[in-house]
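User: Can you predict the 3D structure for this chain?
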Amino acid sequence: MLDVSQLYSTFSQLLTSFSQLHSAMSQLLADFSQLHQDEILFWQLGKYKILPYCISASYEHLPKILANAKFSKIKLLLITL
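Assistant: Here is the predicted structure, written as structure tokens:
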């Protein structure tokens, strides 16, 4: 049988785990949100033929965009650069 200190320790660990899970899910949501914004930005910039001038501003997001682009038009725009 668990004593009070073990019960408290287990409950504390459970709360810590939930907190870490919440933090990880929040970060994942933020990453998806940024990816979605970048996809829209790249699609709009490609549409108006100014994409090459803006690549350097979001260069760190290119691998994510290429891997997860929802629209084939975005992949084609990025690959042809």
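Helices lie at 4-47, 62-68, 72-79. Confidence is low (pLDDT under 50) at residues 50-57.
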